[in-house]
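Weekly structure sync - notes
Attendees: PM, LS, DV (DV joined late)
Agenda: review two folding runs queued last week.

Item 1: First target. Sequence and structure tokens pasted below for the record.
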Amino acid sequence: MPSETDTASSYYALTKHICAQQAGLQHHKQQSSGEEINNTDNQIWVEDSWTEEEISQVADMLSSEKPALRAKAHQIQKYEAEAALNWDRFYTRNHSNFFKDRHYLQRVFPELSVERLSDTSSSCGPFVLLEVGCGVGNAVLPLLEKNPNLHVWGLDLSHVAIDLMRQDKRFANASRQGRAKAAVWDITAGSCPLICTNMKVEHVEGVADGAIFLFCLSAITPEKMKDAVRNVIDTLKPGGCLLFRDYGRFDEAQLKLGTSRGKCLGDNFYVKQDGTRCYYFDLDDIRAMFSELEEVELSYIRR
């Protein structure tokens, strides 16, 4: 199983906000690549750089081999129809053991630091953080544990993942305090959902001061991505922040999938061995889909 640092080369970093001044939020820019490098003798990673020639060579390789390796039309339709089922199978098989808790988020997204969340909560009421594609809670549960004033919503396509998240002691304790809620939501199927918790029906449209969208959009068929992004944006209050990360174009995993028979579902879109899917973005993809938001930072992270 790859570690966080092994897979860091595939990450995009994108932080966006809407009318930040309306919410009294100040954005602190992420550390530059050089500042993030461990300066001790035991470096965790070093920043990688790609030349235009290298990028062109990889693009040509994937383009030339793709037609013969593309999945059949009926296979592509099957993977789309069974998207939720394949994620349920994934979490049934792996439970809460596959992904590690994302403790690094407070470093790469200063908006999620305990100090920032505490300051915002004290001045504007509880800070409401919503995660789309929360899985079993590896991103929000560590934040919930560290900040007693934080309120969290966790939404995911998989019924199994949501059930596992609800069983976590950190979620259960916060839920009893009224600080944690979770529900199943297919963000491609309709508008913001109604969530039933403790005999109460709630709507998530416009509820969040901040939303986390990590490695979720890539699992959706490209034809449905724009609507999915629109639904996620609708969960934000005016002035809310959207924090996004996902897989980047020409990641090593894409090169492996792109040269394997039957794995290519479309341009830069592939199916993994377990039936879940993954799209590899470039910066223009992201900029186009999030165009209605103010862009704070948009960059590759290559390590």
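Item 2: Second target, run right after the first with the same settings.
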Amino acid sequence: MAKRMEINSRLTKPLYIAVSSGGAFDEEDGVDKKRSKLLPSLTGWYMNQMNNHEVATKCVSTGILAAVGDVCAQVLGDYMANGNILANGLDKIRIIAFFFDGSLCTGPLLHYVYKLYEHVYPINGGDDGKNKSGSLKKSGSLKRAFVHVLFDNYVMVVAYISLMMLSTALVEGRYKSIPHEFKFDLIPNIKASYKASALGLMWLQLISFYWLPINLRVLAVNFIDIIWVVVMSFVTHLHRH
């Protein structure tokens, strides 16, 4: 437990220092010092937003990173189809659609689902992860984190994919094709997600769930899910056009 608390302290201490200092730059310290203070300033600002507007901050972060994932998917799709990068330019409606899904669908869902996981089956075992001697139940905490991640990647992912397909189709104006997509593309999309998770994404998520406090897990998963969005966006749009 002490080791995890020490790591969490290392993660969060510079964030709160940045918040208390306002992230201000001393112009006389030079460009290098400004750059060295940029990350604490940004992370401090983000943590401040999390403290004051937790759900909204998570939703906007999810939307932005989902949009980044779709841009990567478009670049990959163009390169595989034409041998060129963005020969036809970016499809801006697609990017907006993924931002919409991330900020208004997936983001809120992740926030409340992760809190539910922790309420029903807390990673630290419900008593701060300690046994009677005060030592960390390392194997128990890891097992609980694994259950969270396994359920998220192989059960809840059906809801994530269904919402993604529905919301992006609506924003892209392809609502007439929704029944066809769910009939023929939902299962292939789920299989693609399962493969991406097994090949690495769920193990990265396991690390983040085990080491990070609950309020930072959505952000960590958002960064991991840039790869997931690339896969899902690419597979979803194979037949959509």
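Discussion on item 2: Confidence is low (pLDDT under 50) at residues 9-28, 127-136.
Action: LS to circulate a short write-up before next sync.
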